[in-house]
Every structure is written in structure tokens, then in C-alpha cells.
Design brief:
Elements lengths: L2 H13 L17 H29 L3 H12 L4 E3 H8 L3 H13 L3 E5 L7 E5 L1 H26 L4 H11 L15
Antiparallel strand pairs: 1-3, 2-3
Helix pairs in contact: 2-6, 3-6, 4-5
Amino acid sequence: MSWKLRRQASILENVTQGTRRHDPADPTLPLDPDEEAAWRALARAVIVVPRVLDADLIEGADLNLAEYVALVELSQAPGRAMRMNELATLTDLSRSGLSRLIERLVRQGLVSREPFADDGRGRVAQLTEAGLRRLEQAYPHALASVRRNVMKYLACLDLPAFAQAVGSFAPDDAYAPARRTARS
């Protein structure tokens, strides 16, 4: 857990000592011990799981997690092609970060980049046949990593209920990244 989160938790605990009571109607009250443990575990998982999957993919398939996710998204898109700004959103990369990633994939022959046919503005990334083969080779490594590092720990849970709970605060349409606005 980052030092900032620990520091915030410590500050909140000091400020609210003696006021711990559970009232779901008041979201500003401190978390109870079970809620705190769940929150901290989730916050750790959000940081650790991508790192572990990234390391496993690099070792087993010579692709990093961002490259793998981009190839997966392209493979599932109509015509295996997608506008770059849409792909940036789905991969949680900045436009410049995605441009660098796509350039690496283009050099490897896994993706091509073309002007958008409908209006000529913007660019489209398209998965090549070599990219699809590379994705198919990487898939068993990604699957094994997910099973080894995540699913084996969730086996005792009601997975549909877990998926529904997580999906309620991380829905499929929540991809739009938050952007800071200029302060006046």
C-alpha cells in the first residue's frame, strides 16, 4: 500500500477516534475493520495483479501487459481495427503512450496503422495476421497467469456475486479516464 494511502488512513483514524460507528447512510464515517481490510486488499490487488501479469507475459510470451491488452482489444473489434483514441481509452493509456506502444507493435509487424477511412482524420490501428498469431501464442501464458495469480484465490467465492459486485463499481462503460481541469 502506498505511503499516501497509509498516511490518509492514519490521519482519518486520529481525527475520528471514538466516533467509530457503522451507519451506511453516512458515507463520511470511518470504515469498520472488515470494510477497511476489504478496501486495502482491493487497493493492493489493483497495483499488484497487473505487475504480476505483466511479468508473466514478458517472461512467457515476450509481450508486456499493455501490448497484450491492445492486441486483445484489436482482435475483438470489428475488422480487427479500431480508432487510436478509442484504443487509448480501452487500454488506459494516454494518446502519446498508445502511439509509442503501437509504433513498437508496427515495427514487429503485429499491427498496422492507417488513416481513418471515413473522414481521413485520426488513425486506425489494425491487427495483422502476424499479430493475431502472436496473440494466440501469448493467450495460454496470460490464462495461466490469471489462474495462478487470481482465480485460485477466488475459487471459494461466489464468482457471479463477486463479478456483479465489482461490476457495480467498475462497469464496462467506465473506461473514460478522469482528467484534471486547470485550476484558476
